[in-house]
Amino acid sequence: MLIVNVTEACMKMAPQPFKKRDLRVLEGIIIHRIGVGDTAEEIAEWFANHPEHTGGKMPYHYIINAGGRVEQAVTLDCIAPGSLAASKNRIEIALIGDFRKKAAPQPQVSACIELAALLSKYISRVSIDGHTAAPG
User: Fold this and answer.
1) Which residues contact 58 (CB under 8 A, 6 or more apart)?
2) What order of strands is seen across the sheet that includes strand 70-72?
3) Which pairs with CB-CB distance under 8 Å and at least 24 residues apart come from 19-24?
């Protein structure tokens, strides 16, 4: 699986440094959808310009576009604030798109499954969740 590393570009947009964590605390993966931007850098810029949501920080470790391209936006030793309290010990993955009316494209779903399987090797107790903070 090809994972494009854009962590430096995405993380430097945050107004403050990301909180660090020990990778041994990882317990699960949370899958999100995001409807702004087409790349990890565009999404990071949107959150930097809208600090009311995440304090200006990129909330996802990985972004997957409709074609299945995977970008790592935040290093795993940092807490990405995608799910607030649950973020401390979870890996945050976001799929670009609004899936309330149309399902995610198969290349995107396949890439998400492959990434989750790859990341599960680093997690002490595998739990893959979504959340309902926003519809869709």
Assistant:
1) 10, 11, 13, 14, 40, 43, 44, 47, 48, 73, 74, 80
2) 3-5, 70-72, 62-64, 90-96, 28-34, 128-129
3) 19/78, 19/79, 20/77, 20/78, 20/79, 21/77, 21/78, 21/79, 21/88, 21/89, 22/77, 23/76, 23/77, 23/122, 24/124
CA angle 53–4–19, rounded 5-degree value: 40
The residues that bridge with 31 in the sheet, in sequence order, are 93
Model confidence at 128, pLDDT cuts 50, 70, 90, reads: low
b/e 76-87 (16+ beta carbons within 10 angstroms → b)? bebbbbbbeeeb
> For residue 130, which of 102, 100, 94, 80 has the smallest C-alpha distance?
94
- pLDDT: is 18 or 83 the higher one? 18
Q: Look up the pTM and report it.
A: 0.91
Tokens of 78: 């940092």
Residue 45 token pair: 């810029």
